[in-house]
Write a structure and sequence with these properties.
Layout: H1 7-21, H2 27-34, E1 43-51, E2 57-64, E3 77-83, E4 86-92, E5 105-110, H3 116-124, E6 130-133, E7 149-155, H4 159-171, E8 177-184, H5 193-202, E9 206-212, E10 221-222, H6 227-233, E11 241-245, H7 248-260, E12 267-269, E13 287-290, E14 295-298, H8 304-310, E15 328-338, E16 344-345, E17 350-353, E18 357-365
Parallel strand pairs: 7-8, 7-11, 8-9, 9-10, 11-12, 13-18
Antiparallel strand pairs: 1-2, 1-6, 2-5, 3-4, 3-6, 13-14, 15-16, 15-17, 15-18
């Protein structure tokens, strides 16, 4: 019967047969022993270039495996790697155009002094390093019908998603006006400075504005964001759609200015504000067992991160809102409810985020 199928059908049929024969591990578990980039279902990324634009950052060029299906400018990707035998996951936004001709991805990561993964990547990532990648996610994207006028505002390493938007618009030959307003401490702290100058030279409707908070030399603007800065950088900002990503003080200032001007609906942000979550602590039942430490507690009905801390444990965590994935751990038994979506999951040996996972009855965590 297989011989009667077209060639592509035969290949798929044989692959499915091989997958079934190799159960329970699946074909990918065997292919990765030969070459991690051969996996069929999981997405991997091979680091092909490493550069350091500033002393505290690393820029990785990554070739994704064949399971990669692309991304939209502004989205993020969950990047996974093993550190000392423990799988760690963080979210990073590609900084390249979504139309990049060679299909490669680019991530620029700032090494946080307290950040385990970012420091590890800066110190250890090299050509040939293999990373786990997720499908792209996130709603911080340009609309399909591109706005006639666009203001892009960023600060520090928050440049990556908005730079991806800018590169995408330039590749598309966007006919409208674009202002790229970037904040940094000094000129030495500006990521992609040469690339921004090159983009401005290629695209006559683009204006790049550098604002330095700790220096005047070389800056178009000096000091922190204000309505005056915005009016000087983009006098027509009231008629534009604005996209913002950066540190919280910058984002708060921009939000305030747009709110006072009655333009909040025209401001789009990479959202890092905790969602409003409620927990039914009165109906909580069951026990939580932290298997590795041997500790147990009554289920209080709050997220597992808080219950672990109450039990005297100090699991790694970051945002406490389900964004950064730094608190991901393996649930070995039981059910949990995702506090953001309400979804209940009960698979064994399932990776969950402690900060937004609430036990439903008895639960065991590898912690």
């Amino acid at each position: 019967m297989t011989a009667l199928l077209p060639r592509t059908g035969r290949v798929r049929a044989l692959a499915s047969l091989a997958e079934a024969l190799l159960t329970p591990h699946g074909m990918d578990r065997y292919l990765e022993l030969i070459d991690p980039m051969l996996v069929r279902r999981e997405i991997r990324g091979l680091v092909t270039d490493v550069r350091h634009q500033t002393p505290d950052t690393v820029t990785l060029t990554v070739r994704p495996s064949r399971a990669w299906r692309g991304f939209t400018a502004g989205q993020y990707v969950r990047v996974t790697l093993d550190i000392d035998g423990v799988r760690r996951t963080r979210c990073y936004s590609p900084s390249c155009s979504q139309h990049r001709a060679d299909g490669l991805l680019e991530f620029t990561i700032k090494a946080d002094p307290q950040g385990l993964v970012s420091r590890h990547l800066k110190a250890n990532a090299g050509v040939g390093t293999v990373l786990g990648l997720s499908t792209a996610d996130g709603a911080f994207t340009l609309p399909e019908a591109r706005p006639d006028r666009v203001v892009l505002i960023s600060g520090g390493s928050g440049i990556t998603p908005v730079l991806s938007m800018l590169r995408t618009l330039v590749d598309e030959g966007h006919p409208g006006e674009i202002v790229f307003l970037h904040y940094a401490n000094t000129a030495a702290d500006v990521l992609y400075r040469d690339e921004l100058a090159s983009l401005a030279a290629r695209h006559p409707a683009l204006r790049v504005v550098h604002a330095y908070t700790h220096a005047k030399r070389g800056a178009t603007l000096h000091g922190f964001f204000s309505a005056r800065h915005l009016a000087k950088a983009a006098p027509w900002y009231r008629d534009a759609e604005t996209y913002l990503c950066g540190p919280k003080p910058l984002m708060d200032s921009v939000r305030d200015v747009y709110a006072e001007a009655g333009l909040s609906e025209r401001l789009h942000t990479e959202e890092f504000t905790p969602p409003a979550l409620t927990f039914d602590t009165d109906s909580a039942e069951g026990r939580v067992r932290f298997a590795r430490s041997g500790r147990e507690c009554e289920n209080s009905g709050v997220p597992l991160l808080e219950q672990a801390e109450a039990a005297g444990l100090r699991p790694e965590h970051g945002c406490r809102m389900g964004i950064c994935f730094s608190c991901t751990r393996v649930k070995t038994a039981g059910q949990v409810r995702n506090a953001r979506t309400g979804e209940v999951s009960g698979e064994e040996n399932e990776e969950i985020q402690l900060c937004i996972s609430v036990p439903v009855g008895d639960v065991e965590i590898d912690l």
